[in-house]
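Quarterly update from the structural biology core.
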Amino acid sequence: MPRRLRTAIYSVASVVFISKILGFVRGMVIAHKFGTSAEYDFYLIAVMLPALASGVLGYACYYQFVPFLTRKAEQSGPDDPALFWSSTWSAVNLTLLVSGAITAAIVLIAPYVLTFWDAGWSPEQFDLIVFYCRLTAASVVLSVSEAFMRALLNVKKIYAYPAAGLSLFNLCSIAAIMLLHQHISVGAVAVGMVGGMIVQNLYLAVRLIPSQALRYFKASIVDKESPLFLSVASTLILIELINRSYFMIDRYFAPRLGEGIVSALNYGQVLVQLPESIVGFAIGAVLFPIFARSDDTSDMSRFIAAYRKGITVALLFAVPLAVFFFTNAESLVHIIYHRGAFDEQSVIMTARILRTLVPSIVALFVVSTSIRACYAKGWTRPVLVFAGVFLVTKLAATALLPQWFGYVGISAASSLSHVGFGLGLMGYIVVQWSPHDRNRFLFTLLRLVLAGFLVYLAASVFRRITWPLVEESSHVVMYLALAASALVVFGTYAAVVAMLGFKKYFRDALPWRRSTRQTEQDLPCD
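Predicted structure, tokenized:
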């Protein structure tokens, strides 16, 4: 791995790690103040529409603008900001206008749409849910503007700075919850979310001052490229809408299975998404511009090399993390959340959900890299097809599995759909390759699966021996047992993958190792 590429990935991962630690603190504060209470369930129902819209538009905007801005930067060159911005402002203005219209629509239709999730609320409870929904609708515009600025900074090869914006968001959110929860209850979470996003946007805007964007502002919405821009954007939005509809399905079925299940699903999903949101985010943020710069057929060999390396490194992280989360679900939930209103029943419920969500850890790493590769190559329709197929799978599985497995059937349905989606995307990409490249890649995957199985056996034996000793122990003893389990999992995994021929990947991935192969010299660090 070229040194600049490696350093860029580690710099982003380090910054995102700090951000996610703060996000964990935010989650712990919420768990301490509200636990798995009905009140917090109401808030999670209320924020569904804004969260869905901001997630869909934010990610679609980022996926749209990285290739778009990369192409504009190559056309204008580094010394002509006037040309760059004259061909960019129309797309930016159009995107912000659409996001503003969607924000207004959420405010207007919230009382009518939310009745679909009505689980016997009182009029006062319903009014409160509508109020929270309208308050958090501002997150739609804020997420879109943040995504555009982050995409622009990534195209300019600035990675760590925009990633640090999430730390500011979490700090503001934590402060709002701590200061306001006694006065406005879960409304403090909503205030913290919107206020944190405003601060995050201002932080990114400061770094863009040298780009002279305002100097070359153009008050236009439509230009000759707008039809193509809208066509691609519509497909991306539809894909993200499908991908991010899972939690709405969960929140339709979960309230009917008992109080606190919506909250427990949310806590479990936060834990499962953590590894990919740090390492997977870093790998994707750095590789996406590379994929975008190799979007023609003549650069297929570069694309294959980047994708193969990205997936292999991602799975080298994801597989042992999945084993660790699966074998230590109760301990992780107990240590992170068990305080205040988050009682023992909440621990049991969340741990059961977490364990069935663990396959999603590996799947999300694969999806994160694969979806960026597909978008960079212009393969949006296959992504849309796979997303639609596995949305139907998720809906059917969520309706059926709880009949046999109870509330964990909901999380099992999510894992099933995530794994299928990841395998579908990866299969579509790999089938484009030559037989030699394809067989080489599949052999790599088989060795990683074997390594994961062997490590799972070792971790399970260790867990069976130690869990009776720490089940009723203090937090300190549980911390020590968790650390020992981590040593067993990651130590055994390192030994196994080294024997299976992955030693060069570990050696290559070391942040301090010098490399003489600067095939990606155009990848600087912040």
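The mean pLDDT is 82.
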